[in-house]
């Protein structure tokens, strides 16, 4: 009810949905800079301490001293505080300009006028006169300072309290005026009722309404009543522009007004004095006024402020006080009326009818406020609906935006996981859109986008989702039970290709479309991955030109350039799951005589999320990743053989890598980390065209072999290896093992071949065997080939005598490579192969 929490909630919500400030109010419609602290404001807190000491000291004097000394001392302190508060207003007012000067000087006139009256009465009181004299014609002089105080309150720089609730470009509506009038009636009626109960009723009853005494009391009471009403209404309907000065000023003026009212109440009841503690009101009031003049002018939290958009807002705590203030005088009047009724006959009391009238006005005010709250809440709900629409729709075309499309795609994928059927995503990009902007302007480009959006939306079912993802890119989600997605894509492309009139020119634009279909049998996939696949298909279609449509296949995810492949491999080496993971593939080296494994070879493979497990990575430097990949493989392979068993591990590196001095430290670090003896590692060098010079090999490889690691020559006869490079390595490095590529093995073991290539292969490999170099053959396809190899002196070959393929062992990313332990899969395989 009322202007309580519901109004505060509605107002706060209106603020959250950008209810703008009325531009017709320049003082608050534009952002105000924080004012510089005025001169004198640095004395505020010392003045607070002094004021508190004066009030506390006066209270102690009033209680501790005898009646007569207490009276004189307290009244002297009162005169001093009146002069101090008024003087502070004068000094600070002269240092300011405009409204800040006006209100200070006007309030100073009120305080100093009351102080002058108190000083004029002090000699008579000191000569045993009454502490509170009766009113006469001279008492009307107090109307002048009260008029100054009233003018000072009205001059205080404030703004309307309801400014932040007005719709943009509009003033106040009739409801605001109705509420304002009723609030004013409640405040004025309640204060009048209080004045009647405390002063006016006794004055009229004692002397009659036209007597000399009561007429002065009535005039002074009426003036005091006007000041109190104006002060309360200012608090209710206005808000200060900065600082807490208004609060202190209001408290000071209400305190002074209450003090004057208490003195008149004593007089009309025939009394001549008041309790000494009541004098404290006329001591504290001027001090509060002086503190208001000294208060800093910078904005404080909890006051009306201006946000970053220039809109004025009022915190909820202040709104609650604003809602309660009109009813505080009504509450006080109600309590006073009940106390009055408890002493007399209720049937003869006029106060009860006045109170009932005020309650009726308050009820009407609450009903008006309730209607206003309902209207405000309706506006909030409408703004929230608008904000929700704007948050999930493209402002240009009205289509769904990326956020809404992704949300619906996620929902469709969840339904597919529950067996709802297939779904498809189409990704469209307009061909030549940039040319439209360049030739016809951005307005024509916007028209093209709007027409394209209408055409796309008209070609699909209402259950499907058409979205503009940004620029000239559109996406269409075809949910379950849709027709053939390829047919839909072709229909969309034909609709987009229809001629369009742009800037008085007929123009035709095509759309390149990428299509990805997710069947129930498709594995788990995320919305982002699905959009990425559709985007890849769209770019493949755009590369073909002429508005083609391309269906996504995994090979579209293959990096199309060396830089893209390097980036993907680099990310996989760092362990980023979006680019796959590196794995180690182990292949046994078999003794052809006993058919048992005597060693194994380790190679890196790339398990890509779209491509699946790819072939072992070539050990060359085409991508510039050889040092990192070789280091990963070397450490992982050594750890795989770190169990202490006697099977050596063969690791292949590029020839260029073998010539780098850092290889020595990398090998030593890998052996040390795996606690593997040097004899358990065979470092195979692949003679690629990028091989380093003999001098490089002679130093680096000799140092590695001196540590106990055996050196091998890998894949002799492979298409990308060179005989001259192999001969150069054999001449510059001590080689213990040579592995033969499957092509050369086939040439070497082919029955009945007497061509020069076969003769050269037999002669060369026989020479190596004769020199004591171990030869390991690859591509052994059966027992006959194994028998011919044994006849030629080759005792070892790559393969699996058990006829089972090895599974790749996943490898952690490079930063955690020292902690990987993929040896267990290889151990299990080796154990299986030991028993035929």
Strand order in the sheet with the most strands: 12-13-15-16-17-18-19-20
**What structural class results from the helix and strand content?**
alpha/beta
What about the largest sheet?
8 strands, mixed, barrel
Give the % helix: 40-55%
The rounded Rg comes to 48 Å
**Percent of residues in β-strands:** 5-15%
Low-pLDDT segments, ≥5 res: 1-37, 299-310, 801-836
Count every beta strand, where a strand is a DSSP E run of 2 or more residues. Answer: 21
Helix count, DSSP H or I runs of 4 or more residues: 28
Q: For the terminal residues, how far apart are their CA atoms? A: 90 Å
- Overall spatial form: elongated
Calculate the mean pLDDT score and round it. 76
Task: Tell me what you see in this structure.
The chain is α/β, with parallel strands linked by helices. Helix content is 55%, strand content 13%. The strands form five sheets. An eight-stranded mixed barrel has the order 12-13-15-16-17-18-19-20, surrounded by seven helices. α4 runs antiparallel to α5, α12 runs antiparallel to α13 and α23 crosses α24. The longest helix has 42 residues. The relative contact order is 0.06. The N terminus and C terminus are likely disordered.
Topology of helices and strands:
Elements: H1 5-16, H2 26-29, H3 44-64, H4 67-94, H5 98-126, H6 143-155, E1 158-160, H7 174-207, H8 212-237, E2 238-240, H9 245-268, H10 279-294, E3 305-306, E4 312-313, H11 316-324, H12 327-341, H13 351-392, H14 402-417, E5 423-430, H15 433-440, H16 442-458, E6 465-470, E7 473-478, H17 485-497, E8 500-502, E9 505-507, E10 511-518, H18 527-544, E11 549-551, H19 562-573, E12 581-591, E13 596-608, E14 612-613, H20 626-640, E15 649-654, H21 655-658, H22 662-674, E16 681-686, H23 694-706, E17 710-716, H24 723-732, E18 737-740, H25 742-749, H26 756-770, E19 774-777, H27 783-791, E20 796-798, E21 809-810, H28 823-834
Parallel strand pairs: 10-11, 13-15, 15-16, 16-17, 17-18, 18-19, 19-20
Antiparallel strand pairs: 1-2, 3-4, 5-7, 5-10, 6-7, 8-9, 12-13, 12-20, 12-21, 13-14
